[in-house]
Design goal:
Helices cover about 40% and strands about 20% of the residues. It contains 14 helices and 9 strands.
């Protein structure tokens, strides 16, 4: 059975792939992810792929993934609602959180403080993307997490988010993953505080000697998924792999291995406080990014965001 693991591949190797091969099923691990175009072209070199939330929805709708037989994998209700789609089983969760250097700023700032330049002077870092950034703008404007996507679905809500961004625009330094990195900006002092991937922040503290803060309140949780490629010749093995990968005891190892969160119900049960503190699915005040909303609205909001940046 061939499997493609991207993203935090080393963590998934340790937590999921190596333990699964010990059960007797051989896995070929390919670390370079196929694009959706490769799946659409019938590139069945893989039986199972790790895929993003938007990707699993798009590939499922295009017929490039198998609809999951949840009964054969322990039942759909073994997962959190955000960890179960028609074609995807939640592999892990990460989050975009507010982070700051605790050596330079004391306290625990919120998104409202992030926008308050008079109270807390300094540059701010935000990802150069409407996805996540517009949600943060609404949270900073006082919208409750449960109301963010209802608000953003309206024209007035979109305008509200961009008005809030207008207020901060002169002080924003934009980051992109793997390029102008959020934590590089924070470490260099280019920004006082920034949005950033929670796992990257925690690992920088663990292994890089940093003292970066994590504000979970208003954090945006996002899931990656395991999915079975349409027409897999090893369907039974692929289902066994997903059943194993979705086990709460397996996913309970994610916070320690890579500061990631489990999407299986019970994955956080019994974890010590220091691991609960870094799991994106164990902290209150967070909001799951709505992949279906971005599937339906992403293109038009990206055009609006690009036009706003160019203005």
């Amino acid at each position: 059975m061939a499997l493609r693991a991207g993203g935090p591949a080393q963590v998934l190797q340790q937590v999921v792939l190596t333990p699964f091969t010990a059960t007797g099923t051989k896995l070929d691990v390919l670390t370079r992810p196929p694009g959706l175009e490769a799946l659409s072209a019938g590139a069945a070199a893989w039986d199972v792929v790790q895929i993003s939330g938007p990707g699993v929805l798009a590939a499922c709708a295009a017929g490039d993934l198998e609809k999951l037989d949840w009964a054969a994998m322990g039942g759909r209700d073994r997962m959190l609602a955000q960890g179960a789609t028609d074609c995807g089983l939640g592999a892990y969760a990460d989050a975009i959180v507010l982070s700051w250097d605790r050596n330079k700023f004391q306290g625990s700032p919120t998104w409202q403080d992030f926008w308050d330049i008079a109270k807390v002077p300094g540059k701010r870092g935000l990802r150069r993307s409407p996805r996540g950034t517009l949600e943060i703008a609404l949270l900073a404007d006082g919208v409750a997490p449960a109301d963010v996507y209802h608000t953003l679905a309206s024209k007035d809500g979109v305008e509200r988010a961009f008005r809030r961004l207008d207020q901060l625009s002169p002080y924003v330094v934009w980051w992109t993953p793997g390029d102008h990195d959020a934590l590089q900006m924070l470490a260099s002092g280019e920004v006082l505080m920034t949005s950033a991937p929670s796992s990257a922040v925690v690992l920088a503290n663990r292994t890089g000697g940093r003292s970066f803060g994590v504000q979970w309140n208003g954090g945006l949780v996002q899931a990656d998924y395991w999915a079975i490629v349409k027409g897999s010749a090893n369907l039974a093995d692929a289902q066994r792999f997903l059943a194993f990968a979705g086990d709460a005891k397996v996913q309970a190892a994610l916070p320690e291995a890579g500061a990631l969160g489990g999407l299986a119900k019970g994955a956080n049960a019994g974890l010590p406080p220091e691991l609960l503190a870094v799991s994106p699915t164990a902290n209150a005040g967070t909001l799951f990014i709505d992949d279906a909303f971005w599937r339906d609205n992403g293109d038009k909001l990206a055009q609006r965001f690009d036009a706003w940046l160019a203005h």
